[in-house]
Prior knowledge:
By secondary structure, the chain is α/β, with parallel strands linked by helices. The protein has helices spanning 7-17, 20-35, 47-51, 88-101, 112-115, 141-155, 165-169, 190-193, 203-213, and strands at 38-39, 59-63, 119-123, 128-129, 160-164, 181-185. It has one domain (7-214): Uracil-DNA Glycosylase, subunit E, CATH 3.40.470. The chain is built from nine helices and six strands; from the N terminus they run H-H-E-H-E-H-H-E-E-H-E-H-E-H-H. It catalyses: Hydrolyzes single-stranded DNA or mismatched double-stranded DNA and polynucleotides, releasing free uracil.
Amino acid sequence: MEVNIHPSWKAHLSTEFEKDYFQKLVTFVKNEYAQGVCYPKGSQIFSAFEHCPFENVKVVIIGQDPYHGVNQANGLCFSVQDGIEHPPSLINIFKEIEQDLGIPYPISGNLERWASQGVLLLNATLTVRANQAGSHQNQGWETFTDSVIRVVSEKSNQVVFLLWGGYAKKKSALIDASKHCILTSGHPSPLSANRGYWFGNKHFSKANDFLTSVGKSPIQW
């Protein structure tokens, strides 16, 4: 597994790559990819960091697992490759943006357009076995991505953290609320959204309001 990560991140995370847990994680991931189909493809495992340099981070969205269907995952949480049918959670995200900001529902579910504006689209686990949700959890990825969240909290200022669902909300313990904006709501999955825990959270306008208030450019969602 090649750690293709933007140089701006290496300055903050290089010590993580040297730790025992990460070396074991690399061995595990290499074996998994050698033995069967895993997602995303190897060159996209660290796409979240490639498309959003450290100094550009304005918003962090935390997902749990990559999509495990054919050609869906592209290394950015909730994002899919161009031309791929939008999964249910992404549909609900786009519906909320439509309601919140009046932005028409987009054709492409590829969120690289967000990442290039400073949205870190971080899954807690960066790889998954095909058709087996959660199959790469508890192998070290969470330790690594928790370190990423801590680094952003400690080394950056006035970042918006969007924590959707119970799993993501637990990450608030890693974030300094005195200098960052933390927005929480239910998850955009149909199970949560249909119970009234997602729609109407207005996280996209609230994030932009905060960014504008601290002199940063808003995200073109």
